[in-house]
Batch of 2 targets.
Target 1
Amino acid sequence: MAAWKTIRITKPCKLRIKNGNLVIEDETMRVKLSLSDIDSIIFEGDRFTLSAKVLAALSKHKVAALFCDEYYMPTAILHPYHQSSLATETLKAQLSLPDDLCDRFWQEIIRVKILNQSAVLSYFAKEDQKLEKYAKQIRPGDPYRTEAKSARIYWKKLFNDLKREANSLDVRNQALNYAYAILRSLITRDLSAAGFIPALGLWHDNRYNAFNLSDDLMEPFRPLVDIAIYLLLQNYKDDYLAPALKRDIVTIFDKEYIIFEGGLSTMRTTSVRYIQRFKAAILNRKIEFINFPTIDFEALSECF
């Protein structure tokens, strides 16, 4: 059975391994969890204690471990070290990927992202024809920064007065950052499991960023996260990221409103399949091998 649980660590506690299980305990409680059931763990803040043995066990069982600061921004991600049987072949293909193919991948990634953004705005009757125009105009490597132009229109239409800032106390920003951090950890885990080095990106190339490729490949998913956050926030009146909202954000990755390869899926499952399709595209040097996620709006209405 595939791992399915997402664990949030928000209070002071100690984590340890006993008889192959993860034990989480504090002064008042003790919880034992099978590592094979855990898909991801989110550590919020620094009020917990764990050992190298715990980290090794999480990595061995391919658990995506995400560490966040007080603004719910990711500070670290634990990902397994090359557990793919084709790790060497994949790594060689990644390292030798020609620049022109990287640019074409980026073109397609951004094209789909902009189309998904346009679909989100249309769902809320806020559509802007410029987005579809930009999607058609995008060029390999996006030399004219079409993505940035689209983003300015998209955010102004979706949230109007929202400014996308990393350390903003705006609950909308915090909710988006929290969800993106989870998505990033899932993509990173799946990339590593497929034999990729997440630091080597197609377009993102920050020498201090260990997850450039993750940031590249999560782009088409962002609008899928945005629409879920928008809908969740309709039911919350708090001006901060409350525990109840964080719990709900975690659940969006297991809701079936994503279309991938013609079928209905969750973001968690789609991430695995998406990375496998990307791997096939890299190994075969054919961009046509990769498929991208979109939104099933009828299913979405049943999920939120």
Target 2
Amino acid sequence: MDTYRGRLNSIVLPAMAALRLREVTVFRAQQVCMTVKKNQSVDSARTVRNILSGICGLAVRYKAMQVNPVRDMAPLEGRRKASRSLEAEEMKDLLQKLDSSEVAIRHDLPDLARWYAGTGFRTGEALAVHWHHLDLDTGTVDWAGNLIRAKGTGNMINDGKTEVSERALALPTWLVAMLRERHVRLAERFGIEPDQLTGPVFPNTQGGLRDKHNTLARWRDFRSDAGYPWVTFRTFRRSVATVLDDAGLTARDIADQLGHSKVSTTQDVYMGRRVKSRKAADALSRVEWFAE
């Protein structure tokens, strides 16, 4: 909601507020959205289009407009970046650089990166998990919601994106070992017994909810210095999908791990496809088109 309010105040109102409703045409709406696409991104342009459509749709319902001109706009299409995931050696190198970086350690990034790499959680999901959501004896974690920053409220946890988002995941053994050690370490840091530790698994310095935007900023600083400017937290999510794909899991299994309701989202967006397969080349090599 804050994103929509921000786009409304910074883009839509400056561009359209002086117009009468009858002056809001397909051309004007398209022009505003194309400007946003050029100067910012196609996703921002789509957000602006949704805002305009909502305004015009409301006007139609109250008979202030006859039709919603935004519905006749041309699609806002953008070139999708090829999905890239971390190779095994890249992952090892990145984790080693995290472990040796005083700045990364100070901002609690090494454990957080492993948390992403072992679960495939979205950023808001990863930071929402509290210790009571974990069962380290069985090696599982229950989905805890999604951490957001709400205007006037601050950081809070809300429900997930879809019913599929609400899931329980089995954790890899190396991640369970890391969490056990972290549990003891955090209890010592806050001066309490481990069984009294009930807050977020990845808290702020006071033990409360960690700010997602500050965490993303800290990661951007680290990745540039580490030589991995292209790696975002979503890259870990893609890497999980690719590892599971290579291990022979079905697309449905992988979608369940990532919390996707649509298998196509998992296949098209989150599986790393920059790694070239030799299947096609091997098949062509077997035919005798060029046999001497």
